[in-house]
From TrEMBL:
Annotated transmembrane regions: 78-97, 104-130, 136-160
Organism encoding this protein: Metabacillus litoralis
Domain of life from the UniProt record: Bacteria
Protein name: DUF1700 domain-containing protein
Record keywords, A-Z: Membrane, Transmembrane, Transmembrane helix
Transmembrane helix keyword on record: yes
Length: 185
């Protein structure tokens, strides 16, 4: 595989990355070819030494997505990081997707409980139309207590969500190091 074919395949695999960032990534590999040719190597030897452009593109895409998620803290960015990391190896489907789905599931369930508690006064008011004023004060106090707990829980879930975002990013980085065979500090 020559330089043109290698860079073309790498560029094609990175088509989801914006053009400016993709050009920066490709520039690094053009430099590898330039330095290798100055050392007397052929383009084929350099391409073989660099490895498979598809594998390289997956690794570059994961690094790009992680960096993007660190700056743009959104659910979409995190989803892109998880998908890109899973594409690195089958190992990631088990050791990355499982824990993340479980953590996010618990987070969503707790957020739903917080929302339900917060909206409990509405349910109490609706129940007044069907049941009547029978136990008015106890229902009022129960709905106020549940609403207060819901508001506190909702505020807590905002902070838990921010914390989980950071923890999941660290876990993804740890997982990437394991897949690449690096240190797992």
């Amino acid at each position: 595989m020559n330089k043109h074919k290698f860079l073309g395949e790498l560029s094609n695999q990175l088509k989801s990355v914006p053009q400016h960032d993709r050009n920066e990534m490709l520039y690094d590999f053009e430099e590898h070819f330039k330095i290798g040719i100055q050392e007397g190597k052929s383009e084929e030897e350099i391409a073989q030494g660099l490895g498979n452009p598809r594998v390289i593109a997956k690794e570059l895409l994961v690094e790009y997505r992680v960096t993007q998620a660190e700056t743009d803290q959104s659910v979409k960015s995190m989803f892109n990081v998880v998908l890109a990391t899973i594409s690195l190896s089958f190992f990631n489907i088990i050791f990355l997707l499982g824990p993340i789905v479980a953590i996010i599931g618990v987070y969503i369930a707790l957020s739903a409980v917080a929302l339900g508690f917060t909206l409990s006064p509405i349910a109490w008011i609706v129940s007044l139309f069907f049941i009547g004023l029978g136990d008015f004060l106890s229902g009022l106090f129960a709905s106020v207590i549940l609403c207060s707990l819901g508001v506190l829980m909702s505020i807590g879930m905002i902070y838990v969500g921010k914390f989980l975002y950071k923890v999941i990013l660290k876990y993804v980085r740890f997982n990437i190091r394991i897949v690449k065979g690096g240190e797992s500090r």
